Amino acid sequence: MSTTPADVLIIGAGATGALAALVLARAGLDVVCLEQGGWVEAGDHPHYSSDWSWQRKTRWNADVNKRHHVDDYAVRTDASHVLMWNGVGGSTNVYGAIWPRYRPSDFRKGDEHGLQPNWPISYEDLAPYYDRSDRLIGTSGLSGDPGMPPRPPSPTGPLPFTDAARVLAGAFDTLGWHWWPAEAAVISEDYDGRPACNGCGVCSGCARGSMSKYSLSIWPKALAAGARLRIQARVLRVEKGRDGRATGAVFRDRVTGAMEFQPARIVILAGNGVGTPRLLLASDNLANSSDQVGRNLLHHTLTACEFWVDRKIDGHMGYVASMISREFAETDIARGFVNGFQFNCLTSTSSAGEIAAGWLADVKAPWGRGHHAWFERRFGHNLGLFAIGDDLPNPENRVSLDPEQRDEEGAPVARLHYRPGENDRRMMAFQLDRLVDVAKAAGAYDYRLQDYLDENGVYRTPAWHMIGTCRMGGDPETSVVNKWHQSWDVPNLFIVDGSALATGGVVNPTSTISALALRAAEHIRDNFRELSATTRPRAA
Amino acid sequence: MTATETAKLLAALVDTLLPGDTGWPTGATVGVQAPLAARLVQERGEDALDRLVAALGDDAAALLNGDEAARVAALTAWEARDQDLFGFVRDAAYMAYYENPVIVQAINEHGHPYRLVPHVAGYKLARFDLARDTPRHGRGAWIRTEAVQRVAVETLHLDDERTQNWGRKQ
Ligand SMILES: Cc1cc2nc3c(=O)[nH]c(=O)nc-3n(C[C@H](O)[C@H](O)[C@H](O)COP(=O)(O)OP(=O)(O)OC[C@H]3O[C@@H](n4cnc5c(N)ncnc54)[C@H](O)[C@@H]3O)c2cc1C
Question: Is the pTM of this model over 0.95?
Answer without folding.
Answer: yes
